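so my prof wants the structure for this chain in the tokens format not the other one, which i didnt know existed until like an hour ago. anyway here's the sequence
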Amino acid sequence: MLLVSRLPAWIGESVRELWLRAADSGCLGYRHRLQPWGFGSAPAAACVQTILDLDRLPLPPSQPALLVSHAYRQSPVPHYPSIESWAVLNGVSCSQAAAYRRIQFHTIRRRLRAPSQALDGAYALLPHLTSHFGHWVGDQLGAILWFATDPRVRAGGRRLLVTAPSPAWAQALTQLCPPDSLAVFTPEQLLQANLRLADALLLPRLSSWQNLALARDRLGAALGPPAEPERLFLCSRRSDRIANLAAVCERFERHGYTVLDPTGLPSLVLLRRLRDAAGLWCEHGSMVLNALLCRSRPYRLFSLDPVCAGRHADALTVLGGSLYNSVQRGLQQPFACAPAEDDPRADRQLHPYQRRLRVDLEALDQALSQERNHR
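here's what i got, hopefully its the right format
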């Protein structure tokens, strides 16, 4: 890798691509395939949403596996890093998207050299784990809640090995799942060493649509009686997503909204407040996954202006927030914003939900005034 890093960028990229193709042939040992084990595929500019018949799903025999973990993006939660973990069986791991397969392959390949430790007992595994909140909710929460109650998975005391994006969500899992059905590892624990499992049952990766449907169904029955109706602006209180966030928060408070940062709140309490809010606005990006889990009434969502969003590549757009948002697009009422920075490179490399926005304060004032007049 040192030699590759000293080469011009385009040569380094070509070498990495050739390396991946050579690994696909099976001649290099480790492979990172695109959705192996017969669970569908996701071409670069589309995302196949395969719906599995979970009642008749055949489970494979258990076998040895290696769980390989690495850092992934950033986490706002102290001591809860954002990570990805991959199940490697017989030298093969499973990518969920063609657009990211190459970088995943090289990241996992390097982490294969990290120290490992044996984990005794019988476990069930998903092909991919993450503690990144948006992808954890969008791709894994529903599967966790479903398989934790499947008697075939739990037979013989087998537990589902999982992680969570925060202590609050780890606690929520223990409330939502049967006792002793989960082995909940913190992201820090998973980063310490790769885990060698002698008895691992590999479960399928569910599509985002099926995962979110299962999560909404299970949470809907668990959130309890209505909360006091509020008017809420859900945001992180950080300017990562909205450049003029302080001024935006001031406008909401002026119009009688509570600015709500979900960090540290019990997850089920948070979702109940969002479900019953009389008015809800939401920061774009991963934050909106909270509303996706519980909301059945319209809400407003800050979003990148459609003209600017159209400059982003389809392959990155469909695999970003639009895949999740499409599940609830009928309830979302976008509030279009310009990007905070005019950056052609960001147009090429990011999806619209990663762009930092700048909110038109005058237009926001007008929208909030109209809401107040219609109450």
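also thought this was worth mentioning. The CA atoms of residues 54 and 146 lie 9 Å apart.
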